[in-house]
Amino acid sequence: MRTVPLNYYLILSAIVFSIGVIGVLVRRNLIVVLMSIELMLNAVNLTFIAFSRYLGSIEGQIAVFFVMAVAAAEAVIGLAIVISVFRHHQSLDPQEMQLLKW
Amino acid sequence: MDVATVIFFSLAALLIGASLLVVFLRNVVHSAMALVAALFIIAVFFVILQAPMVGVLQVLVYAGAIMVLFLFVIMFLNLTASEPRRRAWLSFAGVSTLLLGGVLSAMLTQTEPAADPVAATELFGSPEMLARNLFNDFVLPFEIASVLLLVAIVGAVVLAKRGS
Fold first, then answer.
1. Which of A1, A10, A89 to mutate to test the interface with B (most CBs of B within 10 A)?
2. pLDDT per residue over B3-40, tens digit each?
3. How many CB atoms lie within 10 A of CB B95?
4. B22 vs A19: CB contact, 8 Å cut-off?
5. Residues B56-79: tens digit of each pLDDT
6. Prediction pTM value
């Protein structure tokens, strides 16, 4: 079975990454912003795996392992921050978090 | 159009649709469900690209553990207030994202080895080969990742604990 060119995968992951960027920019709900970041990380993972397959080297898959570990840590810490922010403001709107803004 | 191309394009359409739903659905639980769907489709891509082990981990860790954590927090906070729209930002975000996507695609597709994939052996992507690489060349990053996870656990407990 013939395989799809590498470029198809790269363009697909660029599209998914850009959709994640839109989510971070337009949504005003911290949880959805975090989920968009997860989407962007997964687009990068897809790039890693595609390169790993087309270059025949396993290092791309190893990198995806570490991205997953860091993403898990990021999700845990991010959600803990979301919970404590919600306790303070009773809302998840990022525009209300301007304590550090001068 | 051969079978591989048809499969790729149908999966790609599903993935882009699910990602758009994640970003544009109003209900947080619904967008979490769309994210689960998107993660599953990415796992299917991993399996197609001869990374079955990473695909299984994707389903277990992302679609399983991390998304359960997200849903748990959504239920825990019990959000009722509707989210205001950022109309002024939408056009700016659209334009800048189109630019970003164009630049990313142009840069990524400049890579040379786009013609034919290297002939893969039976072993490629198997847990055995992955483990052999992970525990030989990448032992130090592996240990650092374990320390990172430990720090994340402690940090999450400290942050989410009720203020003393």
1. A10
2. 889 999 999 999 999 999 999 888 889 999 999 999 99
3. 10
4. yes
5. 999 999 888 999 999 999 888 877
6. 0.89
Contacts of B87 (CB under 8 A, 6+ apart): none
Comparing C-alpha atoms, which of A85, A26, A57, A27 is closest to residue B73? Answer: A85
Cα distance between residue A94 and residue A96, in whole Å: 5
Q: How high is the ipTM of this complex?
A: 0.91
CATH topology of domain A6-96: Helix Hairpins (1.10.287)
pLDDT digits (tens, 9 = 90+) for A3-22: 788 888 988 999 999 999 98
**Is any Cβ of chain B less than 8 angstroms from the Cβ of A19?**
yes
Any CB–CB contact under 8 A between A67 and chain B? no
**Closest by Cα among A10, A35, A41 to A23:** A35
| Cα–Cα distance, A95 to A21 (Å, whole number) | 17
Rounded Cα distance, A83 and A81, in Å: 5
